[in-house]
Design goal:
By secondary structure, the chain is of the alpha/beta class. It has 21 helices and 27 strands.
Length: 620
């Protein structure tokens, strides 16, 4: 009996060791528990990974790094760890030659590409604070944002900068514009138009990045940065208004990387990732640093959001034998239209998403394919979906959850308390007091990765943080140890009989076979109350009317959740923000009464006589 027990324990110990080695747990833990400072990660990676190609791109870089003697720099679509270190060092030297001072903000505004990481590494290496901005940043908000962060240097590509200028935006407050591209590849008409526009905007100095890099004699060493120093200002999604600049400090972000190394179970020897993400985003910058430090091979596609080509991406996942995919929820909305089971995805081990938590209908098709368990010696198919609910302010996921083909309960359960290693404490509270289990309250977090302030905006900081607890903007409740995400507080539907939450409704709306995507929002009624309504994009080939769809969806919902209106909207007309989130306020505001400047009738009568535009027009 004792011998049998010893044999069983030995087999279990051997299998545990095999699993830990398979996912490189010892290596990841050594890195997580060792010293980490963001400005030194490129140097550590260059020493550890040397000339091994780590990163590739599906679109060549639009600029290159001239080397002394005329030798070429890194390739246009692949980079080793040494390439990353050298490029960042030369960008840092070029910025220092422009007069970049320690702690000065440098804005990066360009279309999505892997080179955003090379640029922000260069800014930090030179001692500056990198301010990466989404290339789709609204033109009218560019000037106030640049003024808010007080960026004196702007790194931008010609197409993005021209778009901003043509749409009435301007690089206000900027002294120097560095054009990230190759002068010879830019149409002369665009160069003349851009030069004239920048001259009118009062920008005194304009340079091409390759000309600046050609004058650099050698890469600059990294300026040592303290753990309390701000290294990045990243902007929020702007779903509730103007994008806010979040201060990311060295120490808290190093701690976030420690957590990433613990909860993302990848091996630098056995895994290869495919990324379709906005590279200016905080979660992506954190992930990039982690991948560089660990040495994981990763392919970066430029196309994200509405530009994402889901069928092509799945074909590349299959043909390239990729083991992991990282995208935001908008990419998974598009992936669910692709029959994943029809492709050879046996190599796939994990899918990952962040920002908004994904709906069940996006997750289930992914976890049914892949080879996570076969790779661990178990005779079954399927993969794992890592859903990380967080925000730039938290610096790391607030909570996270792993899903597999064996997961039974979804229902917006987004993770347990302490589910994020090195992450924050989580509570659900109202007016600063923890609510009883099962009751609805505000989701609040507190921890060492948390941001300290919005840049130049104390009032919003004080509103968001109370006694050290940051309000994530979500309302939630506890159920079985899980956080159940119900809604963003600004999106709660306040009916005459109480509060109704849009996310659980959307979870069930997505189950309808005709629904491709949906936005449930609060529609204002003539009596001033709100009722749930939905804008729905239907699947290709689906045949239904708004009235039929509304009746079929309401059969899935409780009476309090019944949709007063359903409008079928082409998906390319959804108001989608720069990070891929649907802007619910755009639909909600359509139902608000239009102010009448000179009313001869009482306001109450004016509202009562005015039909609610969406409710009246779309329910049939």
């Amino acid at each position: 009996m004792i011998v049998a027990l010893v044999v069983v324990l030995g087999v279990l110990a051997a299998y545990t060791a095999f699993v830990c080695t398979s996912v490189a747990l010892p290596r990841r833990l050594r890195l997580a528990l060792g010293p980490i400072s963001l400005e030194r990660i490129p140097d550590r990676a260059a020493r550890r990974h040397r000339g091994r190609v780590l990163f590739t791109s599906d679109e060549p870089c639009s600029w290159s790094v001239p080397q002394p003697g005329g030798t070429g720099g890194p390739g246009p679509d692949s980079w080793t760890a040494r390439d990353v270190q050298t490029t960042a060092g030369r960008v840092a030297a070029a910025l220092s030659a422009l007069g970049l001072r320690h702690g000065q903000r440098v804005a990066i505004l360009k279309r999505n590409h892997f080179d955003i990481h090379l640029l922000h590494l260069g800014v930090v290496r030179a001692g500056g604070v990198a301010c990466p901005m989404n290339g789709a940043f609204a033109a009218d908000k560019v000037a106030p944002y640049l003024l808010n962060v007080n960026a004196r240097i702007l790194l931008a590509d010609v197409p993005t900068l021209l778009r901003v200028l043509r749409e009435g935006g301007a690089p206000d407050g900027v002294d120097t514009v560095v054009l990230v591209g190759r002068a010879g590849d830019t149409p002369e008409t665009d160069v003349r138009e851009l030069s004239a526009a920048l001259e009118r905007a009062g920008v005194p100095a304009v340079h091409w990045i390759e000309e600046l890099l050609a004058a650099v004699e050698r890469p600059a060493p990294a300026v040592r940065r303290g753990r309390r120093e701000p290294l990045y200002l990243v902007h929020t999604s702007g779903t509730t208004g103007f994008p806010k600049a979040v201060i990311l400090r060295n120490g808290p972000q190093a701690r976030a990387i420690r957590g990433w190394l613990c909860y993302v179970h990848v091996s630098p020897q056995r895994d290869k990732g495919y990324f379709a993400v906005p590279n200016n985003h905080q979660a992506v910058i954190m992930t990039f640093h982690s991948l560089l430090l660990l040495g994981v091979r990763t392919h970066w596609t430029r196309a994200t959001g509405l530009d994402f080509d889901a069928p092509r991406a799945v074909q590349e996942l299959a043909s390239g034998r990729y083991t992991g995919f990282f995208g935001f929820p908008i990419t998974y909305t598009q992936l669910k239209e692709v029959p994943l089971a029809a492709h050879d995805l046996r190599a796939m081990r994990f899918w990952a998403s962040t920002a908004d938590a994904a709906h069940e209908e996006m997750i289930r098709p992914c976890v049914r394919v892949g080879g996570t368990f076969r790779r661990l010696g178990l005779p079954m198919g399927g993969s794992v979906y890592l859903d990380a609910q967080g925000s730039s302010e938290v610096g790391t996921p607030s909570v996270l959850r792993y899903y597999s083909r064996f997961t039974r309960r979804y229902e917006r359960r987004i993770g347990r308390r302490h589910s994020t290693p090195f992450g924050p404490r989580v509570r659900i509270a109202r007016d600063g007091r923890v609510v009883p289990r099962g009751e609805v309250g505000r989701l609040e977090v507190r921890g060492r990765t948390l941001f300290e302030a919005y840049w130049n905006n104390h009032s919003l900081t004080y509103e968001a943080v109370r006694d050290g607890w940051f309000f994530t903007g979500d309302v939630a409740r506890w159920s079985g140890g899980h956080v159940v995400q119900l809604d963003r507080e600004v999106d709660v539907i306040r009916t005459r009989v109480g509060e109704v939450y849009s996310l659980p409704i959307e979870e069930r709306v997505h189950r309808h076979p005709a629904v491709f995507d949906a936005c449930v929002y609060a529609a204002r009624q003539p009596d001033g109350s709100q009722l749930p309504a939905a804008a729905v994009a239907v699947r290709s080939g689906a045949s239904t009317t708004a009235r039929e769809l509304r009746d079929e969806l309401n059969a899935l919902l409780t009476p309090a959740e019944h949709l007063v209106a359903v409008e079928i909207v082409p998906w390319d007309e959804f108001p989608i923000g720069v990070t891929g989130k649907t802007l619910k306020r755009a639909f909600r505001e359509r139902t608000e009464p239009t102010p009448v400047p000179e009313a001869n009738r009482p306001v109450a009568l004016e509202i009562a006589d005015r039909p609610a535009p969406l409710v009246a027009a779309s329910s049939g």
